[in-house]
Amino acid sequence: MFALTLSTWQSEAAPGFGPGSSSSSASKDGASSKSVSVWTFSQHSQSNGEITVQICPQAVKLKMSNQPFSIVSAAPDWKVYAYNRSKGTYREWPKNGYRGLQKDMLFDAWMRDHQWIKVGEVNSKVPGLRLESLKIKEKADLGLAEKTAIIGVTKAVSISPEALKVYSSTLKVPYFGKFPMEARIGKTLFGLSSSQYLSTSRGKIERVELSSFALPKGLKKVSDENRITEDGSSEGFVDLIPSN
């Protein structure tokens, strides 16, 4: 067995599974565009519903189907943006200032600095990606939900600490320097309806324009998260952002 802590940050890539390389190509009108190789995953999270994730060492983008906004962050500054195209608004966080879209208190037991150990390996639903199964090392003060928590991560997805931190903070999944694809938690931890906290149904490598990870032009910066929600009500995004 080996041990990992939440402060263990590594960038690991397996041969043949290394998105992140970029290239420039000329369009029909002669203009040059830059594309990058990324992993695109379809995931489901108890905290955010259906999610499309695009991730590589240089950038990350998350689109939640049940929320009207997207999350993007990219090198070199790794600022994090939550933007709503339909309302023309966005909110910005500096590097290391983003803590996700859920109140931390809800996930305190799950996210604190536990020691995790490898307990096995399994195949994922995505061909070619094998998962390491991790669980929290047994301690006398662990609750039942924490004792039963299992996370499946893969080292075959090339990723940077910065991109993974944004992903993990958004989905509220502990980070290990490897990409999480499956997670099961004791139902009592958050009062969940299911113990399947995170699942991945599809994944593929594709090339996308690097500009797709940038904040769209023409949006208005707001400090009132209420203006990021679809209807501008007091429910939704504003209730999910912790106070800074």
Radius of gyration from CA coordinates: 18 Å
CATH topology: outer membrane lipoprotein receptor (LolB), chain A
Distance between the termini: 39 Å
**CATH C-level class:** Mainly Beta
How many discrete domains? 1
Shape: globular
> Overall mean pLDDT score?
77
Helix-residue proportion? under 10%
- Structural class by secondary-structure content: mainly beta
Beta-strand proportion: 35-45%
SSE string, helix = H, strand = E?
A: EEEEEEEEHEEHEHEEEH
- Continuous helix count: 4
Largest β-sheet summary: 14 strands, mixed
Number of strands: 14
How would you describe this protein?
It is a single chain. This protein is mainly beta and 244 residues long. The protein has one domain: outer membrane lipoprotein receptor (LolB), chain A (Clam), CATH 2.50.20. It is built from four helices and 14 strands. Strands 1, 2, 3, 4, 5, 6, 7, 8, 9, 10, 11, 12, 13 and 14 form a 14-stranded mixed beta sheet that branches. The protein is globular. The protein starts with a strand and ends with a helix. The N terminus and C terminus are likely disordered.
